[in-house]
Amino acid sequence: MIAAAMALAGCSSSPEAASPVAAPPASAPASSSTPTARPSATATSAFCLDLTTFQVGVVAYSAEVGAAIEGEPLDFKELRRKAALIADMGEAMQASAPPDVAKHFRTVLKAIDTSASNLKSGAKARDVVDPVYGERNRPAFDAVDDYDCGAAFPEGKA
Questions:
Q1: In sequence order, what are the residues at sequence separation of 6 or more whose Cβ sits closer than 8 angstroms to the Cβ of residue 23?
Q2: How distant is the alpha carbon of residue 106 from its chain centre?
């Protein structure tokens, strides 16, 4: 988990850090005629186990995007890489997101996707920055950044 966070934050120069983190193999999908039960949110859910790494990735992405506010050039390739890692991790976490943060979590994923989709030549800085720093989505980013599965699931209660 720490290696994934360091790769997301760009803290490692090893070849493994440059490639996206592969997700573990998924179990066989349920048949379409069988309803799928939503996994319950627990301290050992994918959401809670990966939350800290996800938070680090979002902070790293947000910080780099924020450089555009100061007129700094953006590294489109690196930001797209980070956004893809966040999206992959978020997809695996989404099904087990606790109800009290699930909506905010989806908003953060959508905002980063929107921001990353605007990383192209000729794009205006606000098109990349606003989804992350704009008033509309900021409460969701704050909620996900402040969320603590340990507080949501006190020891022995998960």
A1: 88, 92
A2: 9
Kindly give the confidence (pLDDT) of every residue in the chain, 158 residues in length, as a single tens digit, with 9 standing for 90 and above.
Answer: 444 444 555 544 444 444 344 444 444 444 444 333 334 457 788 999 999 999 999 999 999 999 988 889 999 999 999 999 999 999 999 999 999 999 999 999 999 999 999 999 888 889 999 999 999 999 999 999 999 988 755 554 44
Nearest of 42, 40, 52 to residue 2 by alpha carbon: 52
CB 109 within 8 A of CB 58: no
Q: At what angle do helices 46-66 and 125-133 cross, to 10 degrees?
A: 140
93 and 54 in contact (C-beta within 8 Å)? yes
On the CB side of 74, how many CA atoms lie within 13 Å of its CA?
31
pTM: 0.72
Residues 6+ apart with CB under 8 A from 56: 5, 8, 9
First to last CA, the chain: 21
